[in-house]
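Sequence dictates fold. Next comes a concrete instance:
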Amino acid sequence: MGELVEIIAKALVDNPDEVEVNEVEGTQSVIIELKVAQEDMGKIIGKQGRIAKAIRTVVKAAAIKENKRVVVEIIQ
């Protein structure tokens, strides 16, 4: 699922080389930390958080197949 977030993020930003994805796995859940360049934060979050919400929705749909709970965090 980290790969999925990375592919989506790299397609959206101007600096795809600065996209970093870190997965922290627990027993029931997975936390995916997405880090992008400061100037690309607006492109990842989108107006009123629409793009961030869409990314989270797609990842949650992929996580259902693995019976895991996924949290996508966008960090600076």
Q: What stands out?
A: The radius of gyration is 12 Å.
